[in-house]
Amino acid sequence: MQAGKSASQTRTMVDMSLDLPPVGETKKSGSFAPSAALEQIRAERDRLEQYTRDQHARLSKLRELMLSEKAASEKELAAKKEELDRQVQLLQERWKAPDFEEAREKIREELRQEAEQVTGQRDAALAEVQKLRAVNLELEQNKGQHETALAEIKKLQALNHQLELDKLKQDAALVDAK
User: Which of 5, 1, 26 is nearest to 16 (CA)?
Assistant: First the structure.
């Protein structure tokens, strides 16, 4: 098992030794079957490719979800800003009206309520930002897993190529021996 893997992770074909004989040498017991090893490598490669496709689809869905949530949040914030701008305009017009202490007190109370509402909205927006940061971190981690899977696929392709070369050499040696 590789040093960087924990004991709870699934072992892959890359982690296992294939116990192949040296080039030009065959096992006496007859238990070596290059095509079986190739099939194992191909099966592992197919599994890793499917895993990579699944992870990519999952990341794409998460990204689309994040973008749609962001767009909805921005639209909602723009609507709130328009409403606040309208209210500011109304308040400015009220201040131009005749001086009434009762009206001023009512406006002050409305302003306090609006300030509390805006503070609540700001806190909710900050919580949403924290959620988005967590999702972004998860996406970055999944990207690392995706890159690791791609590296494993490349290793398997190299091993597959080497096995095919070894098979050709072995076949040539058998032909020469006859």
Answer: 1
